[in-house]
Amino acid sequence: MQGRITLTQYLIEQQRQHNSLPADLRLLIEVVARACKMISHNVGKGALGNFLGSAGSENVQGEVQKKLDVVSNDILLEANEWGGNLAAMASEELEQIHLIPHRYPKGEYLLLFDPLDGSSNIDVNVSIGTIFSVLRHTDKTRTPDEQSFLQAGTQQVAAGYAVYGPQTVFVLTTGHGVHCFTLDRELGSWVLTQSNMRIPHATHEYAINASNARHWHPPVQRYINELLMGKDGERKQDFNMRWVASMVADVHRILNRGGIFMYPADQRDPTKPGRLRLMYEANPIAFIVEQAHGAATNGQQRILELMPTQLHERVAVFLGSKDEVDRVTRYHHEMG
Ligand SMILES: O=P(O)(O)OC[C@H]1O[C@](O)(COP(=O)(O)O)[C@@H](O)[C@@H]1O
Ligand SMILES: [Mg+2]
Ligand SMILES: [Mg+2]
After folding, report:
1. Is the CB–ligand 1 distance for residue 118 below 6 Å?
2. How far, in Å, are 36, 182, 224, 301 from residue 207 at the CA level?
3. What's its catalytic activity (predicted)?
4. Residues flagged as binding site for substrate
5. Domains observed in the chain
6. Measured in angstroms, how far is the CA atom of residue 117 from the centroid of ligand 2?
7. Which of 161, 144, 109, 149 has its CA nearest to residue 286?
8. The model's pTM
9. Is the separation of the CB atoms in 112 and 88 below 8 Å?
10. CA distance linking residue 228 with residue 298, whole number of Å
11. Best label site of 10, 70, 138, 203, fewest CB within 10 Å?
């Protein structure tokens, strides 16, 4: 392919080359990308569209929903009711799964999403995003339920995210590398701008919310203390820290120049290991990171191999440049 390649052209080419991207999965991805375009439009309007501030409601995690959390969720639900070959959807903003009334149980796929990632950044005009994951609906003899969604991340057939920042980008994997499309705002099309993104194995940059330091478990304390000691410690080099507080934006930086992102479990509530949700935050990002030659663990094992037990379960996350993820994972193994 030469010249300007759109998302549609790229997906058709994938279908031709790998023969592994069925037409209905291509349609599903295009519908999600179109929904992200609409979300981007609303994010860009901000106060002009009355999109800032709280919606006055709480989601299943007990978090106050922002207006854009609700709007983005509605856009994704509505767009996907009629596009793709879906049996059901699940969202950070919905307690229960959302069945597709005219289609289940026959639909081929299950779609999960975090409609708006980085909610605390909405009102202050800092990059936010959308994360999605696609699984197969395996047992078509029965109406999908929560159990149908509880599959390991290795079963994902596609995953991606959008970042609504200075540029709007859509980053996608279908298991053949990671590719980035930039929204041409004048033409309204997604244009391929980076192919086969690679995360360097070595890095001098890390991301963690250090205000939780006193609660961290010993392996995380040990790892971060070494980074903080820089040249004067056993790592013998200085490290830089970045924390956007939107995982998508932190991950996008890591895909572009390396780094490690951490949201560890800590000593507070053992029923809440970390802050991030396994099925629609950690799994899709872990799939992307591994496809970009990085690593993603919960400190003990590959995130993608974890068997979920609940739709909204949380998981500790260490992901990005392989050398650093391997090191902090080793500290967890060594220190029990
Ligand atoms: O408030 P903290 O501790 O900085 O946490 C920020 C983290 O929480 C999240 O915003 C959670 O996502 P939501 O906004 O979808 O709840 C991540 O994107 C981000 O990395
Ligand atoms: Mg999120
Ligand atoms: Mg969210």
Report:
1. yes
2. 26, 25, 10, 20
3. beta-D-fructose 1,6-bisphosphate + H2O = beta-D-fructose 6-phosphate + phosphate
4. 117-120, 209
5. 7-194 (3.30.540.10), 205-335 (3.40.190.80)
6. 4
7. 161
8. 0.97
9. no
10. 22
11. 138
| Alpha carbon 107 to chain centroid, angstroms | 23
Q: Which residues of 100-137 are buried (b: 16+ CB within 10 A; e: fewer)?
A: beebbbebbbbbbbbbbbbbebbbeeebbbbbbbbbbb
Rg of the chain on CA atoms, in Å: 19
Nearest to 242 by CA among 326, 126, 332, 331: 126
Statement: residue 1 has pLDDT above 60: no
Pocket-testing residue among 60, 63, 120, ligand 1, by greatest number of atoms within 8 A of Cβ: 120
Range with the poorest average pLDDT among 12-26, 145-159, 312-326: 12-26
* CA 121 to ligand 2 center in whole angstroms: 11
* CB contact at 8 A, 249 and 281: no
- For 7-23, write each residue's pLDDT tens digit: 999 999 988 887 778 99
Judge if the beta carbon of residue 247 lies within 6 A of ligand 1.
Answer: yes
**Tokens standing for 6?**
């759109």
Predicted-complex ipTM score: 0.97
Q: How many angstroms does the Cα of residue 40 sit away from the middle of ligand 3?
A: 15
Distance CA 292, CA 263 (A): 20
pLDDT of residue 62: 80
Residue whose Cα lies nearest atom 10 of ligand 1: it is: 118
Angle at 149 between CA 144 and CA 151, to 5 degrees: 135
Nearest of 131, 176, 180, 136 to residue 156 by alpha carbon? 136
Ligand 2 ion: nearby residues, β-carbon < 5 Å:
114, 117
CB-CB contact of 274 with 314 (8 Å): yes
Q: Is the CB of 128 under 6 A from ligand 1?
A: no
Distance CA(125)–CA(140), nearest Å, equals 43
Amino acid found at 144:
P
Question: Which among 117, 137, 135 has a CA at the least distance from the CA of 174?
Answer: 135
pLDDT of 322 reads 98
- Report cis status (omega within 30 of 0) of the bond before 273: no
